[in-house]
Design a protein that fits this description.
The chain has about 270 residues and is of the alpha/beta class. It has a single domain (about 1-265), classed as Purple Acid Phosphatase, chain A, domain 2, CATH 3.60.21. The chain contains seven helices and eleven strands. It has helices at about 20-30, 50-60, 75, 90-100, 130-140, 170-180, 260-265; strands spanning about 1-5, 35-40, 70, 105-110, 115, 145-150, 185-190, 200-205, 205-210, 235-240, 240-250. It has a six-stranded mixed beta sheet, with no helix packed on it. Strand 6 (about 145-150), helix 6 (about 170-180) and strand 7 form a beta-alpha-beta unit. Helix 2 packs parallel to helix 4. Bound molecules: fe (ii) ion (2 copies). The site of one fe (ii) ion has 8 residues, from loops.
Amino acid sequence: MRILQISDTHISAEHADFSTNVEAIGEVVRARNPDLIINTGDLAMNGCISPVDLELAHNWQQSLGAPIFSVPGNHDVGDRPEIRADQALDSVRLDRFRQIAGSDRWTFDFPGWRLIGLNAMVFATGHQDEDAQFAWLEAAVSTDAKVAVFMHKPLFIDEPDEGPRGYWTVTPEPRRKLLQILGKCDLRLVASGHLHIARELRHGNVTHIWGPAASFVCGEIQEDLGGERRIGFIDYTFDESGFSHAFVFPENTPALPLDPVLDRIYGHQPDDIQ
Ligand SMILES: [Fe+2]
Ligand SMILES: [Fe+2]
């Protein structure tokens, strides 16, 4: 099973600054003819404001020539209210994502494996879908198969028991609960996006992989979190014994920084952005 993980495409009608990178990634993805594509979130730039960018992103994904699953990012459905009050996750934004891009949580089985897509944006929001997703996950991990989880935000930066990392990761309380539930299955992989950084680290049997963005990297607005700030995607091969993966960084996708266009896109400059 050949699976390509793309991430943080940030497709937009109004802010098309990074479309050359996204189109170049799309060309390489099509040429590799995968069995499945997974987008680990921030499909759109302004998806939580209007449906236009999400519809554009969906149409682009349909052009890639392979089945595709997506999980939502903060630019698609919003985030915790303390991150940005005017773009808090709510039911309207969630429903819009589901109608345009498909379910925000899903499973996909093939011999030896269960892939689980999670909506990382509901954690620590108090929205009813947070508990609903935990209950759904309890059932989803009831399998003898090896499990790979795909979600927008990483669980942590360096250590599973580290403290809050602000905007960058799942917060400690839902992280603890997630790891407790995922501890009931044969978890092998947690793949995420959001940081616009390519990185991998291993804890026990679990490989944690940060997918690079297809659009832009963060410059001075992001502290050093390790890994590589490059544009690309990940090429996985899964078989019944395990999986292998390779980061792919096409030559014609420069590491365009967000910083020069940040104010125009965001309208203001929050402390932490991505
Ligand atoms: Fe992003
Ligand atoms: Fe994000």
